[in-house]
Design brief:
This protein is of the alpha+beta class. The protein has three helices and nine strands, in the order βαββββαβββαβ. This is VOC domain-containing protein.
Length: 172
């Protein structure tokens, strides 16, 4: 029977981004999140050969057919006033352990990819990175093994504490 009354809790399946340089963005997400190209279309909108050139790629780092969809549109430029506009603020990826997160931090730092912000938010520890198009990407880990414990911490510590990854212990 069709459920037309209860609110269903779907999971986020993927995010979609636009870019002027699909290859550059694909490489960054490959290096940072270990994504692989699942599908590439040289003409996703079915434009005539002489028409508007658009490419699209689907990327995943798990069994899903894609977690990140990227559409390349020639001529796109960075919005210098984006802080004054409504927009998607960031996308977040969760690690299972603090060691996994800190190991990723060390690996990326060695490649010259450093966070623009690192915080211990009580309930979680997170690093925020800008991808080549300045989309903000959060890499984080729960500071508790159980999400129920996160809620108690969030209520008790509303302020954010700056986190220094260099001071944390890590098996790198």
């Amino acid at each position: 029977m069709l459920n037309d009354e209860a609110i269903i809790h779907p999971r986020l399946q993927h995010i979609g981004l636009t870019t002027a340089n699909l290859d550059r963005l694909a490489e960054w997400y490959r290096v940072v999140l270990c994504t692989r190209l699942v599908y590439l279309s040289g003409n996703p909108i079915g434009a005539p050969e002489s028409g508007f050139k658009v490419r699209a790629g689907w990327f995943s780092n798990d069994a899903a057919n894609h977690r990140i969809a990227v559409v390349e549109i020639p001529g796109l430029e960075f919005d210098k006033d984006r802080s004054k506009h409504t927009r998607l603020q960031h996308i977040a990826f969760e690690y299972r352990t603090l060691d996994d997160l800190l190991g990723t931090y060390a690996r990326l730092k060695a490649l010259g990819i450093v966070p623009v912000l690192a915080v211990n938010e009580g309930a979680q520890t997170a690093f925020y990175y800008d991808d080549p198009d300045r989309n903000n990407v959060e890499l984080g880990v729960s500071n508790f093994g159980d999400y129920r414990d996160n809620w108690s911490s969030i209520r008790a510590h509303a302020e954010l504490a700056r986190f220094r990854p260099q001071a944390a212990r890590c098996r790198c």
